Each structure stands twice: as structure tokens, then as C-alpha cells.
Amino acid sequence: MDNRKKIHIKTPMGEVHVSMNDLDPNGWIDFPDLALRQYFLWIHPETGASIALIEFAQGSGIPVQHTHASNQFMYCIEGEYEYTDSKIVLRPGDFYMNPKDNPHGPTMAHKNSVLLELYDGPHYYEKPSYHTSDTMVVPTK
Ligand SMILES: [Fe+2]
Predict the structure, then answer these.
(1) Residue 63: cis peptide before it, omega within 30 degrees of 0
(2) Fewer CB atoms inside 10 A, N or C side of the chain?
């Protein structure tokens, strides 16, 4: 997939409004080996900071412990989503933050879950095992 098509809004110019009716059904990034998908609402083209919707089917999750190259934030919209190492369970309305370089995960969606996922910079130093070149969004100016 063309990297630009993975990003709904990629310029930080002016205000942004994305209605749920605006979502492009083909804009979701499917993770082939995991029952999850991601939709980027916005990404900063230079820093890689981003905001995305992420949906996990019940029973899916990130299979391994991993770290991020920036601070990561999650806001649970629906479902029940657990960081199984720390036993933190996110439910609707819950906020979660994981600092840059702090190992976390694996994770498990105990119910179908929808989360808003935010990073304040690039997501990873190197491509993790659960990503492919098609699922990684790398900022491009
Ligand atoms: Fe993570």
C-alpha cells in the first residue's frame, strides 16, 4: 500500500476534523497475522507523532513485550484491553500512558476493543516482529 494512503491527514496545517462518516473503508491497515486493524487520523510528517484508531477483535493483542521510541497514550473507547505483564486493564473511558523506552505488553483484548492510540513521536526504533513493511507508517515529508 502507498504509505500516503495510510494517513488520513498528514499535514499539520490548520484545524482538523474527521467525522466517522469520513473514514475511508480502504484506509484501515490490517495486520495480517493479528486480528487487529489501525486507522491513522493524523500524523505529523516530520516527527512521526500520530493519532490513530485501533481495533482489536476479542482474543487478539500484541503478542510480545516491546518498547516504543516515544511516549505512547491510549484512550479506551469500547471493550476490555489488558497489558498482561502489568495486569492493567483498560475499559471504556480509561486513559493509559507508557513512557518512551519502557517495555510493556504483551496485550490481550478480552472483548472486541476500540482504542484511540497516540504517540508523541516515532513509534519504534526498528520494525517489531508483529509489523510488516505494509503496516509500518513512517513519516514522509
Ligand atoms: Fe506498545
Answers:
(1) no
(2) C
d(CA 36, CA 82): 15
Å from CA of 92 to ligand 1 middle:
19
Q: What is the mean pLDDT of each run of 10 residues along the chain (141 residues)?
A: 52 72 89 90 86 96 96 98 98 98 97 97 88 74 49
**Ligand 1 centre from 117 Cα, in Å?**
10
Looking at the DSSP bridge assignments, the partners of residue 40 are 7, 52
CA distance 57 to 55: 7
Distance 74 CA to ligand 1 centre (A): 10
| CA–centroid distance, residue 66 to ligand 1 (Å) | 6
SS3 call for 6 = helix
The reply to whether the predicted model has a pTM over 0.70 is yes
CA 19 to centroid of ligand 1, rounded, Å: 26
Distance (Å) from CA 140 to ligand 1 centroid: 22
CA distance 125 to 49: 14
Inter-residue contact 40 to 137 (CB < 8 Å): yes
